[in-house]
Every structure is written in C-alpha cells, then in structure tokens.
Amino acid sequence: SKMINEKYFFEEKVFSKKDFVFTSEPYDEIITQILKLKKSGRVLDLGCGEGGTALALAKKGFDVTCVDLSATVLSFLKKEAITRKVPLTLLCKDLDFFEPQGSYDIILGLGVLHFLKKQRVSELFSLLKKQTSNQGIHIFEVLLEGDPSQEKTSQGYYFKKGELKEKYTDWNILFYKEFKSHDDEEHWDNHLAHIVAMKI
Fold first, then answer.
1. I need a labelling partner for 58 at 20 to 30 A (CA). Which of 14, 31, 41, 74 fits?
2. Would you list the DSSP string of 102-128?
C-alpha cells in the first residue's frame, strides 16, 4: 500500500472513521496566555483540528478563522459552532498553499508545522509575520528533532532546539519553553517547543 501522505493522516486515518468521537477540548493554557494579552481581535488558527480552542475564543468574542485540511473535521466544527451559537469562519485549505488575507491580531499554530517541509515553514513564517497587526501575537507549538513521531521517511519539518525562538529575534518573546509532554494515545513523550511572541 502506498505510504499515506502525512498531511492527510488525520482526515484519512482519524476523523473520517465511523466511530471517531469529536471532543473539541480547548487548550486551556493557550486561552489563558491569549486573555492576558488581548480581550478581542482577529484570530487565525492554523490546522485547527477539532477546534476546541477556536470555539472557546469565539465564545469570548474573538473573530476566529480556522484553517484545516480535513473537510470532515470542518463540517463537524460547523455544526458545533451552530449548536454553541458562536460565529466561526472555516477554510478548508492546505497550508502548503494557504495565503492569509488581511491582518490578524493572534495567529495560532499548534502541532501542525511538522506536516510541512522546511522551505514552506520558512515561507509561512514570513507571510504570517507580515499579516500580523502591530502588537499582534503568535503562539506556536512545534515538534522538536528526536520526537518519537519522526521517522526516517518523515518529509515534515522538526525544529532544532532553540530554533523556534530564533525565528522571533525581531519580535518581543513573551514566553518560550522546550518540554516533554506525554501522549496517552501513543504512549510516548512528545518533544515540544512553545512560544508566545509579540510583534513590535
């Protein structure tokens, strides 16, 4: 069987399965980080997945645009937004070709950049930084080299230690950490870097 293109993994192997249960759990630490800095504004959530964080922010009055490659997860999210009576803009786009329009106050990219190649990751950072308002915030969480999900054949980009921080030397870095986080489903520890940076 041909190797599944990594970026379609969630659509083909997870979300489209008959018995998949959507939970839309928000990432509370991220919501806390945002609310300390912003009370409103335009949010771009890249690779939003089940959209728990997007839904929570929309409920608090943020204007949220979600981008994901999975049509299945977005149709679920559309229903969920209607049920919860929150507005969400949903874009079914491949981040390899996505061109953000307009200016955003907050851009989130949580556990999504390893689906892209190095060249595209660099391009995307440049694009996203341009499309960020003054005093706008980026929050990214990326996988580091040596993460157990990284295989010899992985085309995707895994960051070196300290590298995510280097991408923001021209911004104000409000928070940065490298850490391990246990993945209960895979029974392994992910190696992560997490940044909150503000455009100056």
1. 14
2. S-EEEEEEES-GGGS-HHHHHHHHHHH
